[in-house]
Structures are given as C-alpha cells and as structure tokens.
Amino acid sequence: VSENSPTARGYGRLSYEVGAEDGIGKIGAAWSAEDRTATFEYADYMKDYNLQNLRLVECELLDPVQCTTICEGVDSVIWCATDFNGNQPRAISGLNVAFLFRAIAAPTKGRVEIEGLRNLLGGLKLQQQDSKYRQQKQLQQGTSTQIDVPQPLNVVLVSTSPDALDDFETPFGTFHGLKREGEDILRNEFPSLSYTILQMGRYDDNFVPENLDIVLEDQAPTLEDDTGKRGYRRINRRDAARAAVEALTNDSLRGKAVRVWTQKKG
Questions:
Q1: 3-class DSSP state for residue 260?
Q2: Which of 11, 36, 148, 176 is most buried, judged by most C-beta within 10 A?
Q3: pTM
C-alpha cells in the first residue's frame, strides 16, 4: 500500500477501508471501463491517523500455517471474523458463489467461528511463547532490562449477545451454539492468553446514532428492564469498533464476557 500503488489503493483508500471516511475520492460511471474504478487521495488532515503503521493482509483463517505466519510480531488480536451475515451463513444470505463452492467442494474444511478461531489463537499462543523466550534470553545475556509496563489484552473476541438475533440451524451447528462454542474455546483451550469477550447487541447503523455512551453489562438483563424481544439492545457498528479497541487496555474486562450496547429499541 502506497501513494503510487498501481491499484490506486493508496493511503486515501486505506483510510476509507478502516473507517476514516473523510478522504477525498471520486468514482466514475459504472458503464465506463476506464472511470468506474474508485480512487481515494491522501489529505493532510490524515497525518494523525498513523496509516503508515497499518498493514492489510489477506489470510485464509482455516489454514493454520497462514494463521501462524500473520501472528508473527503480534501482541494482540481483535477477532471479528465470522461465517455469518447476521444469523445466516454468508453462502445463503448473499448467494455467494465462492462460499457455496467451498461448502460443496470441501464440506469438512472447517468453520471460521471454530476451526478458524482455534487456528489464529494457536498462532498467537506460539508468538507469545516465542516472545517470552527471546525476552528471557536477552535478560540472561544482559542485552535488555526488565521493565514492567501495562500490557494490552491478548484477545478481544467480538461475539454476539444471546438476545441479539434469532437462532439459525446449519449442517455444522446452530448460530448461537457456534458463537458459544467459540467463546468456550478461548476460555478453556488457551489459558495463557489474556482475553475479554464482547457479546454485541444487534448492529443498527440506520436508526442508532454513533458516538453514544457504551454500556458494558456483566450479567443477563433483569426482568425489569428486559422486554423479551430479540434485538432490543442495539449498537452502531462504529461504536462497536470503538468498544473493541478500548477493551484492549481495559483491565477490568480481563477474563470476562460482557454484553455491549448503546441504545434500546422497542
């Protein structure tokens, strides 16, 4: 990624892809083979975004080797990957040919929520072990000194609140069952990784504004404030992203699963 990228994916485009949508851009008519490609330009006010420190890497999460490779030098992971669009598999909800082909050609390849998560956590665990070994070796050789500084959580798992969406049956498990199984994998199979689990309310970018106060709820809703409706607690995706980033350095969330929302919609 650079300003002179032949694919027009410079810093302006990168800014757009990570949510800083105030870049300068243009797009031509859809029927024009030459002008229909969207381009985005860098503007001076982007200098504080630190885009030079950001890298986009494509990875097959169901390949443990690739997951281990992209975890090299990584201290923390915010896991947002999913096989679902809402509560339905992407292959069904979007009629995605690639997902349908994968499901038919390799039905046992795995699920992002389970095998994909386990692959990435395994890669992160190996990275953490390697980092500790190198630190200990440097201390023994006297080439570094021990400095105690607060460390971010290793994993922020973005999941779904049990009351956000209806359940959906798939050949490989139910929507809610897969979400809870992924949470249990993080809790029980990787005790060396510090973590928090954010069970998001229903995403709503149309009727729930952004920049609202984020509510972190430790326990299930009480009968007094729960209508029993699915999707009652909602959150704008931008606030969900903010909650995930802030959770990295919120030590009070360590080892916890909390429900996250900003607004109640009846």
A1: strand
A2: 11
A3: 0.79
